[in-house]
Amino acid sequence: MRDEALQEAEKLLYDAACEVNRVGGLYPELIIREGKPHEVLMALLKEDPDISILVLGAGTGREGPGPLVSLVAQQSQQAYPIPVTIVPGGLSDEAIDALA
Questions:
Q1: Is residue 72 part of a domain?
Q2: Distance (Å, rounded) from C-alpha 67 to C-alpha 86?
Q3: Which residue among 1, 10, 44, 51 is least crowded, i.e. fewest CB within 10 A of its CB?
Q4: Residue 92 phi, psi dihedral angles, 5° rounding
């Protein structure tokens, strides 16, 4: 099960990276880590000084905006070492382009 989950995560990440490359001509660094999302994220931010902003996409489903978006909202007293931007999940591609 663990290997299957890793393979699925790798495929999702690869597909997203291909889209980033197609749209922006950029080659993102791909990182997969296991653990509690907040702990893993904070460790990565401390380890990699090249990360200068955290952008999270908020989900629009019944389960809410997503675990990291919820965590950021709940733990506002715990400052992140970099700016955090939350992108609403309902934005169209045109609306996102207009923000750039």
A1: yes
A2: 12
A3: 1
A4: -80, 165
Sign of dihedral through CA atoms 55, 60, 66, 72? Answer: positive
Question: Could you tell me the pTM of the whole model?
Answer: 0.74
Residue 13 lies in a domain: no
Q: Express each pLDDT in 31-63 by its tens digit.
A: 999 998 888 988 999 999 999 998 888 999 888
From the list 77, 34, 23, 7, the residue with the least C-alpha distance to 43 is: 34
Is residue 2 situated within a structural domain? no
Calpha distance 32→56 (Å, rounded): 16
Query: Nearest to residue 60, comparing CAs of 32, 88, 38?
Result: 88
Catalogue the long-range contacts made by 26-34 (C-beta closer than 8 Å, 24 or more residues apart): 32/6
